[in-house]
């Protein structure tokens, strides 16, 4: 089966969500050629049927979107959001070149990003590479949803009681970023012994925040902590951080690669050593 990857935009609607993948055995659509179509049916949160101007009817799978199945938590809501977005509307299909991130669509229209393997190493290691054309906007929307416990994050997230949450992992390119949000009502002292680890027990891949930030280091309510790693971190930046008690704090951890491209777990531990949040990619069941 030949798979062609597309982005699309519903006429008059925001284009952020609309990176699509057309799956058809004998597609004649040339990459780079926009194709107009009408959405006839929405199957679920990430799959639609369209009719092209020449009369062909084809299934469309969104690139960068992995909505819950209809029998999973928030599956029906994801389908409903998709229907509001595109059903019976005209869309433009535009060939996409990569398919490497999954996203959970929430009731509010926000997204939960779940990256999966980028198989082309030459593409993956390109510093300017972004696996989905709108990945920056998707991550920003996901952080907002996680921070406010919207949709999936409020009803399906198994760690929804934790005020400190891992909202996303950017694992591609030469600079990785782990995004952590304080979704509580009070500041949290991340310099008190909080720690992030990957799926291994390697000392190399675990960071106690206070080894870089010092103590105390308050992350205000609603604040965002970004933890940077990878070869893109300049030598002089490594093992440094921006000032604490700010709405956004950056920790520049290491020049090593921490997050595996074929899947990993980002695990957050409180000062008592208790696991309080786990972010897994590629996505598994809810």
Explain how this protein is built:
Residues 1-32 and 97-124 have low confidence and may be disordered. The strands form five sheets. This protein has a six-stranded antiparallel β-barrel with strand order 1-2-5-4-3-6. A five-stranded mixed sheet has the order 9-10-15-17-16, with helices on one face. A four-stranded antiparallel sheet has the order 13-12-18-19. The relative contact order is 0.13. It has 286 residues and is mainly beta. It folds into two domains: 1-97, no CATH class; 103-286, Immunoglobulin-like (Sandwich). The protein is built from five helices and 19 strands. The chain is elongated and about 65 Å long. The longest helix is centred in the middle third of the chain and has 13 residues, at 135-147.
């Amino acid at each position: 089966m030949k798979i062609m990857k597309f982005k699309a935009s519903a006429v008059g609607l925001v284009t952020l969500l609309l990176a699509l993948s057309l799956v058809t055995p004998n597609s004649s659509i040339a990459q780079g050629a926009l194709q107009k179509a009408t959405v006839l049916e929405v199957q679920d949160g990430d799959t639609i049927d369209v009719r092209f101007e020449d009369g062909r009817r084809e299934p469309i799978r969104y690139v960068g979107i992995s909505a819950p199945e209809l029998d999973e938590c928030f599956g029906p809501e994801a389908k409903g959001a998709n229907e509001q977005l595109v059903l019976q509307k005209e869309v433009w299909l535009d060939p996409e070149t990569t398919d490497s991130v999954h996203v959970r669509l929430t009731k509010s229209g926000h997204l939960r990003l779940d990256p999966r393997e980028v198989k082309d190493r030459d593409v993956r290691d390109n510093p300017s590479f972004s696996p989905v054309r709108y990945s920056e906007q998707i991550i920003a929307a996901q952080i907002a949803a996680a921070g406010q416990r919207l949709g999936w994050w409020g009803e399906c997230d198994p760690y929804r009681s934790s005020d400190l949450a891992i909202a996303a992992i950017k694992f591609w390119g030469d600079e990785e970023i782990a995004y952590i949000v304080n979704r509580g009502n009070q500041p949290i002292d991340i310099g008190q012994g909080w720690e992030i680890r990957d799926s291994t027990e390697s000392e190399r891949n675990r960071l106690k925040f206070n080894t870089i930030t010092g103590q105390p280091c308050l992350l205000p309510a609603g604040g965002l902590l970004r933890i940077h790693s990878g070869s893109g971190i300049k030598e002089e930046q490594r093992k440094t951080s921006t000032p604490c008690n700010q709405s956004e704090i950056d920790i520049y951890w290491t020049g090593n690669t921490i997050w595996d491209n074929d899947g990993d777990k980002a695990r957050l531990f409180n000062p008592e050593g208790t696991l309080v949040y786990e972010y897994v990619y590629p996505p598994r069941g809810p």
